[in-house]
Design brief:
With about 200 residues, the chain is mainly α. It contains 7 helices and 5 strands; from the N terminus they run H-H-H-E-E-H-E-H-H-E-H-E. A hairpin with a 4-residue loop joins strand 1 and strand 2. Helix 1 crosses helix 2, helix 1 crosses helix 3 and helix 2 crosses helix 3.
């Protein structure tokens, strides 16, 4: 069980009207609850409870603080539920990017399987070249990117997972020294003139 925060202790004492009862609910000793309330009172610079012969009663300052403490507790409970949902993939979002051929051929079936398993996760997609995907990943604007490693972009700050090797094709004139070969290495074309859409 996580350690209760000062406001949780304050809310419990206010709810039960007693350090002892709050301690029993929270699984603390009475003196530990008393110390935490005292710490909160020192933080705010005013008593939050009147100590009575039997139990405690909120002071005016305590009554003013209580709705805010309740709101803090509600927000923390909502945050916990949201984080639990993210950990279980029962909520949240996945921002994924890919270059156009991967977006057309690889992602549709993969995302369909992901959505079948995790229907509550909202998926957004971004299409663009590998250099753009890597820049978006580095900027924290994507959670996952499908990239080619030959894009010339530095891969710092990214963790790569190999998906597949794709065969590349090159066209050469009939009279070229490499014409007719079934395979070639990229190094075989060093110094050749290229016709390409981009670097």
């Amino acid at each position: 069980m996580p350690i209760p925060d000062l406001y949780e202790v304050f809310r419990s004492v206010a709810r039960h009207g007693s350090f002892t009862a709050a301690a029993q609910v929270l699984g603390y000793t009475q003196s530990a609850v008393s110390r935490q309330v005292q710490t909160l009172e020192e933080e705010w610079g005013t008593p939050l409870f009147d100590r009575l012969p039997r139990g405690v009663r909120l002071t005016e300052a305590g009554r003013a603080l209580l709705p805010h403490a309740e709101a803090v507790g509600e927000r923390l409970r909502a945050a916990r539920a949201e984080l639990d949902a993210l950990c279980a993939l029962d909520g949240g979002r996945l921002r994924i990017g890919a270059f156009s051929t991967a977006d057309a051929a690889l992602l549709p079936r993969t995302l369909a399987a992901f959505r079948a398993r995790h229907p509550a996760v909202r998926v957004t997609r971004t299409e663009g070249g590998s250099a753009r995907q890597l820049a978006l990943l580095a900027a924290g604007e994507l959670d996952l990117g499908v990239v080619g490693t030959a894009c010339g972009q530095p891969l710092e700050g990214c963790e790569l997972h190999h998906l597949l090797d794709e065969r590349m094709y090159v066209a050469v004139p009939r009279g070229h020294a490499l014409a007719g070969r079934r395979s070639a290495r990229l190094a075989d074309f060093a110094g050749e003139e290229w016709i390409a859409a981009s670097r």
